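Morning. Coffee machine broken again, so started the prediction first thing and wrote up yesterday's gels while waiting. Chain of 240 residues, entered below exactly as on the submission form.
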Amino acid sequence: MNAPLVFLPGWCLGRGPLQAAVDALHGQFIDLPGYRDEALEGDFDRAVAALGERLAAGTTLAGWSIGAQLALAVAARHPDKVGKLLLVAGTASFVQRDGWPDAMPPATLADFSAAVGVDPAGMLPRFVGGFNRGDAQAKEVTRQILEQADPLPSPLVLAAGLAWLRDVDLRADAARVQAPTLLIHGDADPLMPPAAARALAALIPGARLELFEGCAHAPFLSQAERFIVRARAFLDEPAA
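Came back before lunch.
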């Protein structure tokens, strides 16, 4: 693997849960807007454009959850910047839309967003425990994520990410991706259903999907060794 590997974290949790996997793959992070030292950018399209400008040509771009959505959009809109694309627990649309049934009902996201606005710290254990439901290592993965998560960003940053999840539909972008793409997804993911991963893989030309059995939303922790082996093999594949 000669191209740089850049990994985009997920909503709310930051780099911490991904750190061991990204270190093992010799990657680097770019944080989501508003996290750590990154300025907040509430507009998804402007965030995509800004990230595309920062990347070196041919970068291997990876993302988890909402980070996977951002990575997908960058690959579609800045094809010269993304040589390979790795999507972990990704989807084209987080909420249900016409023709996209395998997602969260918009009303459920609205209720969750309201709860986050009232008590973000109290929401965190319920959020993490919820997206690990069905994982064979659910209790241990939940414990690790809560221990390793970065400090909570501001309520404004959390709200901006939730607005992205509500509004962003990347089905048209997915069809324009040119980079070799691997999707790694848990077959028991309750947050991003595996049916959504299959639908997304079908939209991206030539994309491959690997489902991890007995795994929910965090395959890089639930099945860490398998995740590293599979991701490294993809990263080391020669360019076409």
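The first strand starts at residue 5 and ends at 8. Going to sketch it on the whiteboard this afternoon.
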